[in-house]
Design a protein that fits this description.
The structure is a single chain. By secondary structure, the chain is α+β, with helices and mostly antiparallel strands. The chain contains 16 helices and 18 strands. Helices cover 32% and strands 21% of the residues. Strands 5, 6, 7, 8, 9 and 10 form a 6-stranded antiparallel β-sheet that branches. Strand 8 and strand 9 form a beta hairpin. The chain is globular, with a radius of gyration of 25 Å. Its EC number is 1.5.99.12. GO terms for molecular function: cytokinin dehydrogenase activity; FAD binding.
Length: 522
Protein backbone atom coordinates (compact mmCIF):
# COMPACT_ATOMS: atom_id res chain seq x y z
CA UNK A 1 0.00 0.00 0.00
CA UNK A 2 2.78 2.42 0.98
CA UNK A 3 4.66 1.49 -2.20
CA UNK A 4 1.55 2.28 -4.30
CA UNK A 5 1.07 5.63 -2.53
CA UNK A 6 4.72 6.52 -3.06
CA UNK A 7 4.45 5.61 -6.75
CA UNK A 8 1.27 7.70 -7.14
CA UNK A 9 2.88 10.71 -5.43
CA UNK A 10 6.00 10.44 -7.62
CA UNK A 11 3.82 10.14 -10.73
CA UNK A 12 1.83 13.28 -9.81
CA UNK A 13 5.00 15.28 -9.18
CA UNK A 14 6.32 14.15 -12.57
CA UNK A 15 3.07 15.17 -14.33
CA UNK A 16 2.99 18.58 -12.66
CA UNK A 17 6.67 19.13 -13.50
CA UNK A 18 5.94 18.34 -17.14
CA UNK A 19 3.03 20.78 -17.17
CA UNK A 20 5.22 23.47 -15.65
CA UNK A 21 7.97 22.82 -18.20
CA UNK A 22 5.42 22.93 -21.03
CA UNK A 23 4.01 26.24 -19.79
CA UNK A 24 7.51 27.70 -19.58
CA UNK A 25 8.26 26.50 -23.10
CA UNK A 26 4.97 27.82 -24.57
CA UNK A 27 4.80 31.08 -22.66
CA UNK A 28 8.18 32.77 -22.26
CA UNK A 29 8.60 35.48 -19.68
CA UNK A 30 5.91 38.07 -20.34
CA UNK A 31 8.22 41.02 -19.82
CA UNK A 32 10.76 39.61 -22.24
CA UNK A 33 8.07 39.00 -24.85
CA UNK A 34 6.90 42.61 -24.60
CA UNK A 35 10.43 43.97 -24.85
CA UNK A 36 11.03 42.26 -28.19
CA UNK A 37 7.76 43.32 -29.84
CA UNK A 38 8.41 45.14 -33.14
CA UNK A 39 7.00 48.57 -32.26
CA UNK A 40 8.01 52.16 -33.06
CA UNK A 41 7.24 53.43 -29.57
CA UNK A 42 8.36 51.94 -26.28
CA UNK A 43 7.24 50.25 -23.08
CA UNK A 44 7.93 51.67 -19.65
CA UNK A 45 8.25 49.01 -16.95
CA UNK A 46 9.34 51.19 -14.05
CA UNK A 47 7.64 54.58 -13.81
CA UNK A 48 4.09 53.27 -13.48
CA UNK A 49 2.44 55.24 -10.67
CA UNK A 50 1.06 57.88 -13.02
CA UNK A 51 -0.91 55.18 -14.86
CA UNK A 52 -2.42 54.04 -11.55
CA UNK A 53 -4.03 57.42 -10.84
CA UNK A 54 -7.08 59.18 -12.21
CA UNK A 55 -9.23 62.22 -11.56
CA UNK A 56 -11.43 60.31 -9.13
CA UNK A 57 -8.44 59.80 -6.80
CA UNK A 58 -10.09 56.82 -5.15
CA UNK A 59 -8.61 53.77 -6.91
CA UNK A 60 -5.01 52.93 -7.70
CA UNK A 61 -4.00 49.74 -9.53
CA UNK A 62 -0.43 49.38 -10.79
CA UNK A 63 -0.06 48.01 -14.31
CA UNK A 64 2.73 45.72 -15.44
CA UNK A 65 3.81 48.22 -18.09
CA UNK A 66 2.83 51.40 -19.90
CA UNK A 67 2.94 51.50 -23.69
CA UNK A 68 3.86 54.81 -25.32
CA UNK A 69 2.82 54.19 -28.93
CA UNK A 70 4.14 56.14 -31.90
CA UNK A 71 1.63 54.58 -34.27
CA UNK A 72 -1.67 52.73 -34.42
CA UNK A 73 0.38 49.71 -35.45
CA UNK A 74 2.07 49.74 -32.02
CA UNK A 75 -1.31 49.38 -30.32
CA UNK A 76 -2.48 46.67 -32.70
CA UNK A 77 0.77 44.71 -32.33
CA UNK A 78 0.54 44.81 -28.53
CA UNK A 79 -3.11 43.78 -28.36
CA UNK A 80 -2.63 41.02 -30.94
CA UNK A 81 0.34 39.70 -28.94
CA UNK A 82 -1.86 39.42 -25.83
CA UNK A 83 -4.72 37.93 -27.87
CA UNK A 84 -2.36 35.24 -29.19
CA UNK A 85 -1.36 34.34 -25.61
CA UNK A 86 -4.87 32.99 -25.25
CA UNK A 87 -7.11 32.69 -22.19
CA UNK A 88 -4.26 31.30 -20.07
CA UNK A 89 -2.75 34.78 -19.79
CA UNK A 90 -4.07 37.28 -17.25
CA UNK A 91 -2.80 40.28 -19.23
CA UNK A 92 -5.38 42.96 -20.01
CA UNK A 93 -5.17 46.34 -21.77
CA UNK A 94 -6.57 49.74 -20.83
CA UNK A 95 -6.42 52.83 -23.04
CA UNK A 96 -5.65 55.93 -20.96
CA UNK A 97 -6.26 59.41 -22.30
CA UNK A 98 -6.10 62.35 -19.94
CA UNK A 99 -6.79 60.18 -16.89
CA UNK A 100 -10.13 61.80 -16.12
CA UNK A 101 -11.85 58.55 -15.14
CA UNK A 102 -13.56 58.55 -11.76
CA UNK A 103 -13.26 54.95 -10.53
CA UNK A 104 -10.22 53.35 -12.12
CA UNK A 105 -11.90 52.71 -15.49
CA UNK A 106 -8.69 53.48 -17.41
CA UNK A 107 -6.47 51.32 -15.21
CA UNK A 108 -5.29 47.75 -15.75
CA UNK A 109 -4.13 45.92 -12.63
CA UNK A 110 -1.05 43.92 -13.66
CA UNK A 111 -1.82 44.64 -17.30
CA UNK A 112 -0.83 47.11 -20.00
CA UNK A 113 -1.92 50.75 -19.94
CA UNK A 114 -1.67 52.52 -23.30
CA UNK A 115 -0.80 56.20 -23.06
CA UNK A 116 -3.05 57.45 -25.87
CA UNK A 117 -1.73 61.00 -25.73
CA UNK A 118 1.62 59.81 -27.08
CA UNK A 119 -0.04 58.49 -30.24
CA UNK A 120 1.49 60.45 -33.09
CA UNK A 121 0.27 58.46 -36.08
CA UNK A 122 -2.23 61.04 -37.30
CA UNK A 123 -2.12 64.82 -37.45
CA UNK A 124 -5.37 66.73 -37.58
CA UNK A 125 -6.72 66.87 -41.11
CA UNK A 126 -9.48 69.39 -41.79
CA UNK A 127 -11.94 68.95 -44.65
CA UNK A 128 -13.47 72.31 -45.54
CA UNK A 129 -16.76 72.34 -47.42
CA UNK A 130 -20.52 72.04 -47.00
CA UNK A 131 -20.09 69.00 -44.73
CA UNK A 132 -16.95 70.02 -42.89
CA UNK A 133 -15.13 67.53 -40.68
CA UNK A 134 -11.76 66.84 -39.10
CA UNK A 135 -9.83 63.57 -38.78
CA UNK A 136 -8.10 63.37 -35.40
CA UNK A 137 -6.22 60.88 -33.27
CA UNK A 138 -8.13 59.13 -30.51
CA UNK A 139 -5.55 60.56 -28.11
CA UNK A 140 -6.11 64.17 -29.15
CA UNK A 141 -7.52 66.65 -26.65
CA UNK A 142 -10.73 68.47 -27.55
CA UNK A 143 -9.16 71.80 -26.58
CA UNK A 144 -6.53 71.27 -29.29
CA UNK A 145 -9.22 70.51 -31.87
CA UNK A 146 -10.94 73.75 -30.90
CA UNK A 147 -7.74 75.80 -31.21
CA UNK A 148 -6.83 74.32 -34.59
CA UNK A 149 -10.40 74.48 -35.84
CA UNK A 150 -10.68 78.19 -35.07
CA UNK A 151 -7.79 78.81 -37.47
CA UNK A 152 -10.14 77.53 -40.19
CA UNK A 153 -13.20 79.26 -38.72
CA UNK A 154 -14.64 75.86 -37.70
CA UNK A 155 -15.44 73.96 -34.50
CA UNK A 156 -17.13 70.71 -33.40
CA UNK A 157 -20.87 71.00 -32.75
CA UNK A 158 -21.11 69.19 -29.42
CA UNK A 159 -18.84 69.50 -26.40
CA UNK A 160 -18.22 68.46 -22.83
CA UNK A 161 -17.98 71.12 -20.11
CA UNK A 162 -14.28 70.33 -19.70
CA UNK A 163 -12.22 70.28 -22.91
CA UNK A 164 -8.95 68.79 -21.65
CA UNK A 165 -10.20 65.27 -22.36
CA UNK A 166 -9.28 62.94 -25.21
CA UNK A 167 -11.50 62.17 -28.17
CA UNK A 168 -11.37 58.42 -27.50
CA UNK A 169 -12.28 58.94 -23.86
CA UNK A 170 -15.44 61.00 -24.38
CA UNK A 171 -16.62 58.99 -27.40
CA UNK A 172 -16.37 55.81 -25.32
CA UNK A 173 -18.96 57.33 -22.97
CA UNK A 174 -21.12 59.89 -24.82
CA UNK A 175 -19.83 63.42 -24.29
CA UNK A 176 -22.55 65.72 -22.95
CA UNK A 177 -22.81 69.46 -22.41
CA UNK A 178 -25.32 72.25 -22.90
CA UNK A 179 -25.31 71.89 -26.71
CA UNK A 180 -26.68 68.31 -26.51
CA UNK A 181 -30.35 69.41 -26.65
CA UNK A 182 -29.74 70.61 -30.22
CA UNK A 183 -26.89 68.49 -31.60
CA UNK A 184 -27.03 65.45 -29.37
CA UNK A 185 -23.97 64.18 -27.48
CA UNK A 186 -20.55 63.98 -29.10
CA UNK A 187 -21.20 60.39 -30.19
CA UNK A 188 -24.03 61.72 -32.41
CA UNK A 189 -21.53 63.89 -34.31
CA UNK A 190 -19.02 61.30 -35.54
CA UNK A 191 -18.83 60.17 -39.17
CA UNK A 192 -16.17 57.47 -38.94
CA UNK A 193 -13.84 55.67 -36.52
CA UNK A 194 -10.67 53.65 -36.70
CA UNK A 195 -10.63 51.01 -33.97
CA UNK A 196 -8.21 48.38 -32.68
CA UNK A 197 -10.34 45.44 -31.54
CA UNK A 198 -9.57 42.98 -28.74
CA UNK A 199 -8.07 40.68 -31.37
CA UNK A 200 -5.54 43.30 -32.45
CA UNK A 201 -7.32 44.02 -35.73
CA UNK A 202 -7.34 47.58 -37.09
CA UNK A 203 -10.85 48.26 -38.44
CA UNK A 204 -12.30 51.35 -40.10
CA UNK A 205 -16.01 51.67 -39.34
CA UNK A 206 -18.92 54.01 -39.96
CA UNK A 207 -22.69 53.88 -40.39
CA UNK A 208 -22.21 52.17 -43.75
CA UNK A 209 -19.01 50.17 -43.10
CA UNK A 210 -18.72 47.72 -40.19
CA UNK A 211 -21.70 49.53 -38.66
CA UNK A 212 -22.18 47.10 -35.76
CA UNK A 213 -18.68 47.84 -34.47
CA UNK A 214 -19.13 51.57 -35.14
CA UNK A 215 -22.29 51.81 -33.06
CA UNK A 216 -20.96 49.42 -30.43
CA UNK A 217 -17.78 51.42 -29.78
CA UNK A 218 -19.66 54.73 -29.45
CA UNK A 219 -20.64 54.83 -25.79
CA UNK A 220 -19.23 51.29 -25.43
CA UNK A 221 -17.05 52.02 -22.37
CA UNK A 222 -13.98 50.74 -24.21
CA UNK A 223 -15.30 47.17 -24.32
CA UNK A 224 -15.13 46.48 -28.06
CA UNK A 225 -12.14 48.42 -29.27
CA UNK A 226 -9.66 51.22 -28.73
CA UNK A 227 -10.53 54.34 -30.72
CA UNK A 228 -7.37 55.39 -32.56
CA UNK A 229 -8.92 57.84 -35.04
CA UNK A 230 -12.22 59.71 -35.35
CA UNK A 231 -13.86 61.84 -38.02
CA UNK A 232 -15.69 64.65 -36.20
CA UNK A 233 -18.45 66.79 -37.72
CA UNK A 234 -17.76 70.56 -37.75
CA UNK A 235 -19.75 73.78 -38.10
CA UNK A 236 -18.79 77.46 -38.56
CA UNK A 237 -17.35 78.79 -35.30
CA UNK A 238 -18.79 81.98 -33.81
CA UNK A 239 -16.60 84.78 -32.49
CA UNK A 240 -18.43 85.62 -29.28
CA UNK A 241 -20.87 84.28 -26.69
CA UNK A 242 -23.58 86.02 -24.70
CA UNK A 243 -23.43 84.14 -21.40
CA UNK A 244 -26.60 84.48 -19.33
CA UNK A 245 -27.77 83.32 -15.91
CA UNK A 246 -31.17 83.77 -14.30
CA UNK A 247 -32.49 82.44 -10.97
CA UNK A 248 -35.62 80.64 -9.84
CA UNK A 249 -37.06 79.71 -6.46
CA UNK A 250 -39.62 77.24 -7.85
CA UNK A 251 -38.27 74.02 -9.33
CA UNK A 252 -41.34 73.29 -11.50
CA UNK A 253 -41.10 76.75 -13.10
CA UNK A 254 -37.36 76.29 -13.62
CA UNK A 255 -37.74 72.95 -15.42
CA UNK A 256 -40.77 74.13 -17.39
CA UNK A 257 -38.71 77.02 -18.80
CA UNK A 258 -35.78 74.68 -19.52
CA UNK A 259 -38.00 72.25 -21.41
CA UNK A 260 -39.70 75.05 -23.33
CA UNK A 261 -36.31 76.34 -24.50
CA UNK A 262 -35.19 72.94 -25.84
CA UNK A 263 -38.55 72.04 -27.40
CA UNK A 264 -38.43 74.14 -30.56
CA UNK A 265 -36.25 76.46 -32.60
CA UNK A 266 -34.54 78.02 -29.62
CA UNK A 267 -32.72 81.33 -29.73
CA UNK A 268 -30.08 79.82 -27.48
CA UNK A 269 -27.24 77.48 -28.43
CA UNK A 270 -26.51 76.14 -24.94
CA UNK A 271 -28.82 75.29 -22.03
CA UNK A 272 -27.68 74.08 -18.62
CA UNK A 273 -28.60 74.74 -15.02
CA UNK A 274 -27.52 74.12 -11.47
CA UNK A 275 -28.88 73.89 -7.96
CA UNK A 276 -27.87 76.02 -4.98
CA UNK A 277 -28.84 74.71 -1.53
CA UNK A 278 -28.03 76.63 1.65
CA UNK A 279 -25.40 78.86 0.06
CA UNK A 280 -24.79 82.47 1.02
CA UNK A 281 -23.18 83.48 -2.29
CA UNK A 282 -24.48 82.48 -5.70
CA UNK A 283 -21.46 82.91 -7.93
CA UNK A 284 -19.02 80.74 -5.97
CA UNK A 285 -19.00 77.95 -8.53
CA UNK A 286 -15.75 76.31 -9.68
CA UNK A 287 -17.27 75.37 -13.04
CA UNK A 288 -16.97 78.88 -14.39
CA UNK A 289 -15.24 82.21 -14.27
CA UNK A 290 -18.59 83.94 -14.79
CA UNK A 291 -18.60 87.65 -14.11
CA UNK A 292 -22.03 89.26 -13.92
CA UNK A 293 -22.71 92.51 -15.72
CA UNK A 294 -23.60 94.05 -12.38
CA UNK A 295 -21.36 92.45 -9.72
CA UNK A 296 -22.65 94.79 -7.01
CA UNK A 297 -26.22 93.57 -7.56
CA UNK A 298 -25.03 89.95 -7.66
CA UNK A 299 -23.09 90.24 -4.42
CA UNK A 300 -26.14 91.64 -2.66
CA UNK A 301 -28.39 88.78 -3.73
CA UNK A 302 -28.26 86.05 -1.08
CA UNK A 303 -29.94 82.68 -1.05
CA UNK A 304 -30.72 83.00 2.70
CA UNK A 305 -30.78 79.25 3.11
CA UNK A 306 -33.32 78.78 0.31
CA UNK A 307 -32.90 76.30 -2.49
CA UNK A 308 -32.38 78.22 -5.72
CA UNK A 309 -32.16 77.03 -9.31
CA UNK A 310 -29.97 78.77 -11.83
CA UNK A 311 -30.72 78.58 -15.55
CA UNK A 312 -27.55 79.02 -17.61
CA UNK A 313 -27.88 80.01 -21.26
CA UNK A 314 -25.55 80.96 -24.09
CA UNK A 315 -26.07 82.56 -27.47
CA UNK A 316 -23.31 82.35 -30.07
CA UNK A 317 -22.80 85.29 -32.44
CA UNK A 318 -20.35 87.28 -34.54
CA UNK A 319 -19.58 90.89 -33.68
CA UNK A 320 -21.46 92.30 -36.67
CA UNK A 321 -24.64 90.58 -35.43
CA UNK A 322 -24.64 92.17 -31.96
CA UNK A 323 -27.72 94.39 -32.38
CA UNK A 324 -29.88 91.62 -33.85
CA UNK A 325 -28.73 89.10 -31.24
CA UNK A 326 -29.47 91.48 -28.38
CA UNK A 327 -33.06 91.88 -29.64
CA UNK A 328 -33.48 88.10 -29.98
CA UNK A 329 -32.18 87.48 -26.47
CA UNK A 330 -34.39 90.20 -24.98
CA UNK A 331 -37.44 88.69 -26.69
CA UNK A 332 -36.63 85.14 -25.55
CA UNK A 333 -35.87 86.13 -21.96
CA UNK A 334 -39.15 88.06 -21.72
CA UNK A 335 -40.97 84.73 -22.12
CA UNK A 336 -39.22 83.15 -19.11
CA UNK A 337 -40.49 83.17 -15.54
CA UNK A 338 -37.28 83.78 -13.58
CA UNK A 339 -36.81 86.25 -10.72
CA UNK A 340 -36.64 89.55 -12.68
CA UNK A 341 -33.86 91.07 -10.59
CA UNK A 342 -31.51 88.15 -11.18
CA UNK A 343 -30.51 88.59 -14.82
CA UNK A 344 -26.73 88.35 -15.10
CA UNK A 345 -25.15 88.76 -18.55
CA UNK A 346 -21.56 88.47 -19.68
CA UNK A 347 -19.99 88.68 -23.13
CA UNK A 348 -16.89 86.56 -23.77
CA UNK A 349 -14.92 85.10 -26.69
CA UNK A 350 -16.13 81.67 -27.86
CA UNK A 351 -12.97 79.85 -26.76
CA UNK A 352 -13.10 81.45 -23.31
CA UNK A 353 -16.67 80.27 -22.81
CA UNK A 354 -15.97 76.69 -23.92
CA UNK A 355 -12.75 76.45 -21.88
CA UNK A 356 -14.31 78.00 -18.75
CA UNK A 357 -13.72 75.01 -16.45
CA UNK A 358 -9.99 74.93 -17.21
CA UNK A 359 -9.67 78.49 -15.91
CA UNK A 360 -11.07 77.29 -12.60
CA UNK A 361 -8.84 74.19 -12.72
CA UNK A 362 -5.76 76.41 -12.76
CA UNK A 363 -7.01 78.28 -9.68
CA UNK A 364 -7.83 75.08 -7.80
CA UNK A 365 -4.49 73.49 -8.68
CA UNK A 366 -2.67 76.53 -7.31
CA UNK A 367 -4.48 75.97 -3.99
CA UNK A 368 -3.91 72.20 -3.95
CA UNK A 369 -7.67 71.59 -4.32
CA UNK A 370 -7.74 69.80 -7.69
CA UNK A 371 -6.07 66.47 -6.94
CA UNK A 372 -8.51 65.40 -4.24
CA UNK A 373 -11.09 62.58 -4.25
CA UNK A 374 -13.98 63.25 -6.64
CA UNK A 375 -16.88 60.92 -5.77
CA UNK A 376 -19.02 62.18 -8.64
CA UNK A 377 -22.45 60.78 -9.40
CA UNK A 378 -23.98 61.39 -12.85
CA UNK A 379 -27.58 60.37 -13.50
CA UNK A 380 -29.97 60.47 -16.45
CA UNK A 381 -33.46 61.04 -15.04
CA UNK A 382 -36.70 60.66 -17.08
CA UNK A 383 -38.44 63.99 -17.61
CA UNK A 384 -41.70 62.70 -16.14
CA UNK A 385 -39.90 61.80 -12.88
CA UNK A 386 -37.73 64.87 -12.39
CA UNK A 387 -40.15 66.57 -9.96
CA UNK A 388 -40.32 63.51 -7.70
CA UNK A 389 -36.54 63.16 -7.90
CA UNK A 390 -35.95 66.81 -6.99
CA UNK A 391 -38.42 66.83 -4.12
CA UNK A 392 -36.66 63.97 -2.36
CA UNK A 393 -33.04 64.62 -3.29
CA UNK A 394 -32.91 68.41 -3.03
CA UNK A 395 -35.51 68.54 -0.27
CA UNK A 396 -34.43 65.71 2.05
CA UNK A 397 -31.18 63.93 1.14
CA UNK A 398 -28.92 66.91 0.43
CA UNK A 399 -28.57 69.67 3.00
CA UNK A 400 -26.20 71.94 1.05
CA UNK A 401 -24.16 72.18 -2.13
CA UNK A 402 -20.88 73.23 -0.56
CA UNK A 403 -19.06 70.08 -1.73
CA UNK A 404 -19.41 71.01 -5.40
CA UNK A 405 -21.82 72.00 -8.15
CA UNK A 406 -25.00 70.10 -8.98
CA UNK A 407 -25.80 70.38 -12.67
CA UNK A 408 -29.29 69.76 -13.99
CA UNK A 409 -30.55 70.23 -17.54
CA UNK A 410 -32.78 68.46 -20.08
CA UNK A 411 -31.88 66.90 -23.44
CA UNK A 412 -33.94 65.54 -26.32
CA UNK A 413 -33.76 61.78 -26.81
CA UNK A 414 -34.40 62.26 -30.54
CA UNK A 415 -30.84 63.58 -30.82
CA UNK A 416 -29.39 60.30 -29.46
CA UNK A 417 -28.83 57.24 -31.65
CA UNK A 418 -30.26 54.15 -29.94
CA UNK A 419 -27.98 51.90 -32.01
CA UNK A 420 -24.98 53.02 -29.93
CA UNK A 421 -24.07 51.31 -26.66
CA UNK A 422 -25.01 54.19 -24.36
CA UNK A 423 -28.13 53.58 -22.25
CA UNK A 424 -30.65 56.37 -21.63
CA UNK A 425 -34.14 56.58 -20.08
CA UNK A 426 -36.93 55.65 -22.46
CA UNK A 427 -38.61 59.06 -22.63
CA UNK A 428 -38.56 61.89 -25.17
CA UNK A 429 -36.95 64.25 -22.66
CA UNK A 430 -34.56 63.27 -19.89
CA UNK A 431 -32.31 65.22 -17.56
CA UNK A 432 -28.64 65.01 -16.79
CA UNK A 433 -28.23 65.49 -13.04
CA UNK A 434 -24.56 65.61 -12.08
CA UNK A 435 -23.36 65.75 -8.46
CA UNK A 436 -19.79 67.02 -8.92
CA UNK A 437 -18.49 66.67 -5.37
CA UNK A 438 -14.95 67.14 -4.13
CA UNK A 439 -13.95 65.51 -0.85
CA UNK A 440 -11.51 66.95 1.66
CA UNK A 441 -8.82 64.31 2.30
CA UNK A 442 -8.83 62.87 5.84
CA UNK A 443 -12.01 64.74 6.77
CA UNK A 444 -14.64 62.87 8.78
CA UNK A 445 -17.22 65.65 8.45
CA UNK A 446 -19.80 66.53 5.81
CA UNK A 447 -17.03 67.42 3.38
CA UNK A 448 -15.36 64.02 3.77
CA UNK A 449 -15.39 61.14 1.31
CA UNK A 450 -17.42 58.78 3.49
CA UNK A 451 -20.21 61.31 3.99
CA UNK A 452 -20.45 62.08 0.27
CA UNK A 453 -20.47 58.37 -0.66
CA UNK A 454 -23.29 57.74 1.82
CA UNK A 455 -25.26 60.59 0.22
CA UNK A 456 -24.67 59.12 -3.23
CA UNK A 457 -25.84 55.73 -2.01
CA UNK A 458 -29.01 57.23 -0.54
CA UNK A 459 -29.78 58.95 -3.86
CA UNK A 460 -29.32 55.71 -5.81
CA UNK A 461 -31.39 53.73 -3.31
CA UNK A 462 -34.21 56.25 -3.52
CA UNK A 463 -34.19 56.05 -7.34
CA UNK A 464 -34.34 52.26 -7.13
CA UNK A 465 -37.13 52.10 -4.52
CA UNK A 466 -39.19 54.76 -6.29
CA UNK A 467 -38.64 53.00 -9.64
CA UNK A 468 -37.83 56.23 -11.41
CA UNK A 469 -36.16 54.54 -14.38
CA UNK A 470 -32.92 56.41 -13.78
CA UNK A 471 -29.75 55.40 -15.65
CA UNK A 472 -26.21 56.16 -14.59
CA UNK A 473 -24.04 58.19 -16.94
CA UNK A 474 -20.35 57.25 -16.64
CA UNK A 475 -21.77 54.12 -14.96
CA UNK A 476 -20.01 52.12 -12.27
CA UNK A 477 -21.21 48.82 -10.82
CA UNK A 478 -19.64 46.04 -8.76
CA UNK A 479 -21.35 42.96 -10.19
CA UNK A 480 -22.30 41.69 -13.62
CA UNK A 481 -25.88 41.39 -12.37
CA UNK A 482 -25.96 45.16 -11.81
CA UNK A 483 -24.54 45.71 -15.28
CA UNK A 484 -27.26 43.49 -16.76
CA UNK A 485 -29.88 45.58 -14.97
CA UNK A 486 -28.24 48.77 -16.27
CA UNK A 487 -28.37 47.61 -19.89
CA UNK A 488 -31.75 45.92 -19.55
CA UNK A 489 -32.99 44.51 -22.85
CA UNK A 490 -29.81 45.69 -24.54
CA UNK A 491 -27.55 43.43 -22.47
CA UNK A 492 -27.73 40.59 -25.02
CA UNK A 493 -26.52 42.89 -27.80
CA UNK A 494 -23.72 44.16 -25.55
CA UNK A 495 -22.60 40.59 -24.76
CA UNK A 496 -22.79 39.59 -28.43
CA UNK A 497 -20.60 42.51 -29.41
CA UNK A 498 -18.12 41.61 -26.67
CA UNK A 499 -17.97 38.04 -27.95
CA UNK A 500 -17.39 39.29 -31.49
CA UNK A 501 -14.79 42.00 -30.95
CA UNK A 502 -13.07 41.16 -27.64
CA UNK A 503 -13.87 37.51 -26.87
CA UNK A 504 -11.06 37.13 -24.31
CA UNK A 505 -12.12 40.29 -22.40
CA UNK A 506 -8.72 41.88 -22.86
CA UNK A 507 -9.91 45.48 -23.16
CA UNK A 508 -10.93 48.01 -20.49
CA UNK A 509 -10.85 45.74 -17.41
CA UNK A 510 -11.29 48.77 -15.14
CA UNK A 511 -14.95 49.02 -16.12
CA UNK A 512 -15.47 45.72 -14.22
CA UNK A 513 -18.12 44.47 -16.66
CA UNK A 514 -16.37 41.31 -17.86
CA UNK A 515 -13.51 39.29 -16.38
CA UNK A 516 -10.88 37.70 -18.54
CA UNK A 517 -11.44 33.96 -19.09
CA UNK A 518 -14.79 34.09 -17.26
CA UNK A 519 -17.75 33.13 -19.50
CA UNK A 520 -20.31 35.87 -20.19
CA UNK A 521 -23.86 35.20 -19.08
CA UNK A 522 -26.79 36.13 -21.24
Amino acid sequence: MKRNMLFLRSFMILVLSCIAIKINLCFPNILSSLKILPIDGHFNFEQLHHAAKDFGNRYSFLPLAVLHPNSVSDIATTVKHIWQMGPGSDLTVAARGHGHSLQGQAQAHGGIVINMKSLQGLKMQFHIGNLAYVDVSGGELWINILREGLKHGLAPKSWTDYLHLTVGGTLSNAGISGQAFRHGPQISNVHQLEVVTGKGEVVTCSEKQNSDLFHGVLGGLGQFGIITRARISLEPAPEMVKWIRVLYTDFATFTRDQEEIISGESTFDYVEGFVIINRTGLLNNWRSSFNPQDPVQASKFKSDGRTLFCLELAKYFNRDETAVVNREIHSSLSQLNHIPSTLFVSEVPYIEFLDRVHISEIKLRSKGLWEVPHPWLNLLVPGSKIQIFAQQVFGNILTDTSNGPILIYPVNKSKWDNRTSVVTPDEDVFYLVAFLSSAVPSSTGTDGLDHILIQNKRILEFCEIARLGVKQYLPHYSTQGEWKAHFGSRWEVFVRRKSSYDPLAILAPGQRIFQKAVPYSQ
